Amino acid sequence: MKNIFSATVFLTLTGVNYIFGQGIPRYDSACGLLSNKIYCFGGKITKDGNLDNSINVLDIVAYSGSTADELKNKWQNISSNMNGNNIQFTSHSQNVVLPDGKSMLLSGGEGFIDNSSAPITRVYDSESNSWSIYPEYTDPDSGRRRIIYRAASVLVPYQGIGFIGGYEVLVNSSQTLSKAAESNNVMHMGYDSLTFLNLNKSADLSWFVYEPQYHLTKKIRGDKTSIFDIKSNRIFFFGGKYYNKGSETQYTLRDFKDIEVFDMANNNWTTQVTYGNVKPNPRLGHTTTIVGPEQRDVLLFGGACETPEYDSCSDYAFNFNLDTFGWKLHDHLRLNPIMFPKRYSHSAIAVNDNTVFIVFGLTSPYEITDTILILNTTTPSQLTLMENYTDVNNVNVSSKKPSTVAIIGISIGSIVGIFIILGMIVLWYRKKKKIDEKKRQLEIEEHERQQRIDDPANEVDWDDLDKRYFEMSSTIYHKKSYSPLLASEATTSLTAILSQRPDAVDKNDITTSSNYTVQKPDGGA
What we know:
This protein is mainly beta. Strands 3-4-5-6 form a four-stranded antiparallel sheet, with no helix packed on it. Strands 7-8-9-10 form a four-stranded antiparallel sheet, with no helix packed on it.
């Protein structure tokens, strides 16, 4: 795995420790939550609009408990397996996280260099770290493949990914405003009606125009954001701009007094009137994210307003309720006096129902930021900033595919662990063997003791011996022998009977005419 930052690898029994590098500040990047990590693709890294061609990953589960300031230094820059495809990283691409939660689809993009080997619609799989190619969008009339950017994109269950608006990258005079029923001036437009990409790649119609669409406004429009409300079965489109009739340069920002809506149930384009004492100023470069445990609120964050030139909007955070259609301004989001949350051309990622990450973006036309904001959306009407992030979902890290470095660490740790376990088994076996031998010896000794108890022949009956052996007085004639059995001549007469142990020795000195003790043949004199 290639890293653009310096890395220090230290092997331990638990794996590998390594240092991540600070993410390169960027804006207009495509970001989303894949496999419980935040992935950001491409984007611009200079004020002049130079593009970045890398993938940046932030593992928020591994660094659970870290502060926002610490997390900005934990980005990992990775390379991917392109499977022989000429994958291009752009800005302002249409991007949607797919239902599997591990893949992201990117379509078109600004700065796209057109050639036949560069796929327009590409899908990244975070588990395999590889790319696959989906069918490209072609013009329904001419069949020409088209590269579009700044269009609204939204995932609609059972339909696929819907696209509308945006602008075309390449100049082609066949695409004119007259086609949009506005004027004869040449103006490159994106999707002029709601168009879907069927996620079933085997379908005959991979791309299709949703039909019918009643009351469709044929305007060149872009920079809108969108969400799908599953409860009302409607798509909401927020903000953006549309070009004035007959002009290629003059446009009008869409206000928020009402919101453009497409009703999937009756195929009707309409507007939804909104409420609230304070409504967002018209803007571009904002984000809209469904938040809250009930998923009935939309967080509108950031954006660039005309004041008089484009700069970060001062009203940078709103809550929009999908049931009351009311706006609520949040103007208190600040952790310290020098921290300003406002920005535009950033990315907003809902990591769960209660937390949204705001990453990268522009804080002014002259400053690109790498700071991270962590928003608590548990109660959407009372939005707050958090100093650090804790993984409240208790995600099982083992279910995620580890990185190459992590795999090496786990492998080494496992091998070392196996040797430790084997050593412990050997020591346990040796200790058990000694205990078993000692136990066996004790059993043998106990058995022998029991046999002596059970067999009377092995025991001495002193009472019986007292009856059998006794001391007598005798006169013995011998030839210098102390043994009564070796005496050649002996005349004995019973003088006294004294009880005595067979191995006892008489206290009197032994002489030729002394008394002797009769005893058992193997006893001592």
